[in-house]
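pasting for ref
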Amino acid sequence: MNIDRGVAQAYLLGQLAKADGAEKGFGREMMEHAFELFQGGNEMFGCRVVRLDCRDALMHYYESFGFVFIGKNRKSDLNQMIAII
């Protein structure tokens, strides 16, 4: 990880939410596509960390993609999670 002034560079996976009308499995497809893009970025730029914030109810879902809990967000009640590419 490239850490500069106490901040690790990471891709932020944000604004991903479940739509009531979406087909089952669509979220998994989106996550797989996102990780393909992140892997391409890793090959070009060397960034290997993906970060997201989520509610308690979604932690298990993101853990299934390899994310691990690192702490609560200081500004909100959300959980910070990371995955290494």
